[in-house]
Each structure stands twice: as C-alpha cells, then as structure tokens.
Amino acid sequence: MKPLLDIRNLKKHFPVRGGFFRRVVGQLKAVDDVSFRIPRGQTFGLVGESGCGKSTLGRAILRLHEPTSGRVMLDGTDITALDRRELVAQRRNMQIIFQDPYASLSPRRTVMQTLLEPMEIHRIGTPDSRRRKVLELLDIVGMSSKILHRYPHEFSGGQRQRIGIARALTLDPKFIVADEAVSALDVSVQSQVLNLIARLQREMHLSFLFISHDLAVVQHISHQVGVMYLGKLVEIAPAIDLYRDPRHPYTRALLSAIPVPEPGRKSKRIILEGDVPSPLNPPSGCPFRTRCPEAMPVCAEQLPDLKAIHDGDDPHQVACHLY
C-alpha cells in the first residue's frame, strides 16, 4: 500500500548559543535522522521517555518547527519544499491535537468562533454551510449544540479535548498528529477520547501519528509503533509484534514497566541505570549504550542502523548490534 506519509531522514537541530556575543556553541539534536511511513487510514504510535524528541518530531512533520534537513512526503507532496503560500494551502490536509486542551483553545473565543475560524481562514463554504458543519462536528465528537456560545473555562478537560478534536476535523484533513492527546485527562475520560479517536480513524479513514509516553494507551490504538530514544527511532514494528516480541533492550525495559491488570501476577521489571544522556553531548556509537544491560564494545564505536529482522509488508525493524 502506498503510504500517505513518508518521512525520510528528518532532522531538527536547535542551535545553542553562549558567551557575550551569543554565538552558536553547539547543536541540540532533538530529532536526528528519523525515517518511517504511515499508510493511509492507519495510526502510527510513537513512544519514548520524556525529552526523547517525540513532540518535536510531530511538529517538524507539520513544519510548526522548520526541519533542519530531510523530507516529509504527504500524499506525494514534499511538505519541506513548499513556500509559505503553498504551505498555508496544504494545512488543510494536516492538523494537530495538542496535549493541553485548555492552553490550545483561546479563552476569548466561544466554541462557535473556535470551530468557524479554520473554515473562514481557508474560505470554505458559505456562512450557513459553515454553521451546519460546526453542528455536524459537535455531534461527531459527542457534544451538544447547546454549548456553541460557551467559553473554554466552562468545560471539563475531556470536553475541551473533544472541542480540540472537532477543530482538527473542520478542514477534513488526511493526517492528524495527536500529541499526548489524553495524557492530561482522567483515566475514565482517557478511554472515551481514545475510543473517539479510534472511531474517527475507522469511519473517516484518517491517518494518525499518535504520540504518547504511555505504552498501554498506544497498544490500544495503534497499527504500528515506533520507539524513540534521544532523537532516534530504535525500533519500529506492527503493534502486535512489538508487544508480543520486543527486540530492542530499551523497548523491553519500557514494556516491563506496564502494570499487569491481574491480581497476584507480577511482571519482571527491567530497571535502567543512570539518566538519559544530554542531547547536547550524546554518547558515541549507540545512544542507549550507557544504560543498556547488554552493551558490547562495538556499541561504543559504531551507531547501529535501523534494519529489518524479517521480511514482509510491515517488517520488524531494530537499531541494535545484537541483531
């Protein structure tokens, strides 16, 4: 299947300035040579510890952060090569659901104004058709039309996130980045929002990049999963394969931390020693080697490539010298 989104060698480095003249003294490699694909109508889950570059990657794909290098192909269009005017037109095809639903909604705008704004900017439809679309979107996300003239502070966190999802759908996008979309919500509300996203993905044939630090949440919603560490993808696999047979030592450590929902049953926890290295001064060779329980001498000398360990339409790929 031809992928809707094709990321090729994407990098995002932030210059670090110091000294009296504020000269560039280093580069913070938040995203460092990342490549993967998302098929049309599927969800790609992206997991990893805080600070590993997940959110920066999602924003670089949408060019909310300008990529340092690499290519982002969305349905055959190179997003990184578009000028400002072309990029504005392409925004209709790609949207984002932010982590904090309160911070992402203007406190001065009602729900009606918030949902009308994208359609007014892109000059879609007539005033009447825009209002009908707003009512339709509220129904899709399970909200009543009675809230149209209310403000964000009058809603709960889950209700605000539903409004954020409705806003992301106003322009009928092909691809949506969900950046920690449920991490700020209560557990019971999380499941409702997750089920809503999964239903929208099936019914509207949307493609999602679902970013989260919660592997249990990602397992529930994803077709494929990528594991990120210090700006690099260390493992990519179909969700079933990754949770059943994780190969990278970092992935195994993350999965061992998921609570087992069975009384009396305990899982063997893998405790990683040390702290995550600074992206300003990453280790030589494999970035995970300073915390890896299976590190070998070659790990300090050579960066492992992301390689498929078996063939197939959705190969299991691992960046580790063990394979």
Present the secondary structure layout.
Layout: E1 3-18, E2 23-39, E3 43-47, H1 54-61, E4 69-74, E5 77-78, H2 84-90, E6 94-97, H3 111-121, H4 127-140, H5 157-169, E7 175-179, H6 187-204, E8 207-211, H7 215-221, E9 224-229, E10 232-238, H8 239-244, H9 249-256, E11 307-308, E12 317-318
Parallel strand pairs: 3-8, 3-9, 6-7, 7-8
Antiparallel strand pairs: 1-2, 1-4, 4-5, 9-10, 10-12, 11-12
Helix pairs in contact: 4-5, 5-6
Q: Structural class, please?
A: alpha/beta
Q: What is the general shape?
A: globular
With strands numbered from the N-terminus, the spatial order across the biggest sheet is 6-7-8-3-9-10-12-11
Distance between the termini: 27 Å
Report the C-alpha radius of gyration, rounded. 21 Å
Strand content: 15-25%
Write down how many β-strands occur, each being a DSSP E stretch of 2 or more residues: 12
The biggest beta sheet is recorded as: 8 strands, mixed
